[in-house]
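Hey L., structure's done. Input below.
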Amino acid sequence: MDAKLAVGADRAREMALFVAVVDHGSFSGAGRLLELSPSAVARAIDRIEGRLGVRLLLRSTRALTLTAEGQAYLQAARRILADLDDAEQQIADQGAPRGRLRVSAALSHGRLCVVPLLGRFAALYPHILVDIALTDTLVDVAAGQADVAVRFGPLPDSSLTARKIGETGRVIVASPDYLARAGVPLVPEDLHNHNCLNFNFRRAEPVWPFRRAGKDFAMSVRGNIEANNGETLGQLAAIGVGIARVGAFSVANELADGRLVPILEEFNPGDVEQIHAVFVGGASTPARVRVFVDFLAEHLH
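Output:
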């Protein structure tokens, strides 16, 4: 083998080993995966650090911690290994998209809107293995924790590519049983006398926006239950606990079958929250990422 090719192959193996160490949190865990001894793994990490002239991992008897340089190397290693895998798999299958696709989506939107589409996507692209994680914790796409993340609301500046795949409005809802028991709010100020269910991650003193006679205003509301997702708040409202203001997608079924009814619609400010698919863009974006984002844009828009 040509010397340069041999060096390239060694570096690819060392990158894979480094990623395995980080993912498993130990030399021994990576060694078991790759059938190497912990000392062999440690020597490989030493070679990488020696070649780069920087420390990538801080080692103690209890844990391994990434340095800033280690985090940068990890991000690059994940991208390079993914590109290698994608290139080989596309050629092996005459360019058909394939490989593992790691998707991150919020709990409610993922369960109600993304997961129901996966069967259709799998039928279209049988060589793609969809690995989906539903969580309201933001994953680091740039660091390789996911290939595609579905995000709500304004996006921070970053090197990532974002494509709009939809948007959702907000609606104030309550169950007919609750309204019969507690009364129907006719104006926003009536909410001061109601149990208003809120998100627990927005503000210490939540406010709901309204519009009256063309002028926007916000009003503080109070309640005795908070949650981290709209589906939970909608469920609580549907069983008569109180009134909730949530994304319309999260209570579409309950509105359709009458378990919830919209209220104060004449004061709805019409605010919408945009939904984006976020991923590492560019010419080297794997085909499996491109076709999945295209699919979401087509079916969720």
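Residues 1-7 have pLDDT under 50 and may be disordered. The radius of gyration is 25 Å.

-- N.
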